[in-house]
Amino acid sequence: MSIVQKFVPKVDTVFLKVFPDNHPLSVEEQIFYLTLTEGIFGYNEQVRNENLKILATDYNINSLLPYLSIFIKQAIHVNIAHPDLTLLIYSVRMVKSLLNNQYLNIVEHLHDLIPAVLSCVLARRISKCYYDNHWTLRDFSVFVISAICEKYNNRLNNITNRVIGIYLRPLKAYSMNPLTTIYGAIKGLGCLGEEVVKTFLFPRISGIGKLLFILLERQTHNFYVEELNDQMILEAKHVRDAILNIVAPILLKTKNTNDGGMLYSQYFGYLGNLLYTEVKNLEKIEFEKQKSITYY
Question: Which positions fall inside the TAF6 C-terminal HEAT repeat domain (predicted)?
Answer without folding.
Answer: 22-205
